Amino acid sequence: WATNSNCRGLEFLFSTMKANECTVVPQTFGIDFAAFCKCNGVEEPEEDACSFCPNGGTVTNPEDVYTDENAVFERKCRQAYEFAKYITTGPACNTLLLEAREVCKCSGGPSSSTMGGFASGMLIMMAMMVTMVVSILW
């Protein structure tokens, strides 16, 4: 996740949508893009639906890169930790942070990902689409 990136690509994407389509984006994709992009009039999330460190800790290796050499963008543990607060659903939290949680460590113990009852292939596919859209736009 590209923290501190510009959001012009997302702004263009949303400009093609109707107002009612934009309001369902956080529920549909599991990410509050407007808050992430710091759009005017949009507040930071007050409660985290997703926490990178479920134990309440912080990332202890923030500058470690968790993406592999084939990734379009290099991403660091700090970026995944900061991005987690913009994820709005449990399934998206588990799926979108899975790769980072394999490398990034949290104070108070390892980061964990509980897939629980998350078995829907459609949700996995949607998470992959979101990842592709975010990668392309940044």
Describe this structure in words.
- The chain has helices at residues 8-15, 19-23, 25-29, 33-36, 77-83, 90-96, 98-103, 121-137; strands at 105-106, 109-110.
- α6 (90-96) packs across α8.
- Residues 1-5 and 112-125 have low confidence and may be disordered.
- The chain has 138 residues and is an all-alpha fold.
- It has a two-stranded antiparallel ribbon with strand order 1-2.
- It is built from eight helices and two strands, in the order αααααααββα.
- A hairpin with a 2-residue loop joins β1 and β2 (109-110).
Amino-to-carboxy terminus distance: 9 Å
- Topology order in helix (H) and strand (E) letters: HHHHHHHEEH
Gross morphology is: globular
How many distinct beta strands?
2
Q: Features of this protein?
A:
two-stranded antiparallel sheet, 138 residues, mainly alpha, single chain
List the helices and strands and how they pair.
Blueprint: H1 8-15, H2 19-23, H3 25-29, H4 33-36, H5 77-83, H6 90-96, H7 98-103, E1 105-106, E2 109-110, H8 121-137
Antiparallel strand pairs: 1-2
Helix pairs in contact: 6-8
In a nutshell, what does this entry contain?
With 138 residues, the chain is mainly α. It has helices at residues 8-15, 19-23, 25-29, 33-36, 77-83, 90-96, 98-103, 121-137, and strands at residues 105-106, 109-110.
